[in-house]
Amino acid sequence: xxxxxxxxxxxxxxxxxxxxxxxxxxxxxxxxxxxxxxxxxxxxxxxxxxxxxxxxxxxxxxxxxxxxxxxxxxxxxxxxxxxxxxxxxxxxxxxxx
Length: 97
Hints:
By secondary structure, the chain is of the alpha+beta class. The chain has one domain: Zincin-like (2-Layer Sandwich), CATH 3.30.2010.10. It is 48% helix and 13% strand.
């Protein structure tokens, strides 16, 4: 909610789901959902993903403007993105037997 307050947007609901192919999602109504698998990720990755989803409440796309917002919310996002690239496929396998 810190990121939402900074942007002046409202998060209406935060949910945890079994999302097998994505880390999170945001709706135009302000609802944000995250994959339960993120419990296995380090805090700096969680901060980046929170910034990413909150940025979608302002820009519902992955435009240059969207990425500027994410970078403003989470200036150190590159290590988190790298961590997800390196470890994401392993996390997505949990619970998908």
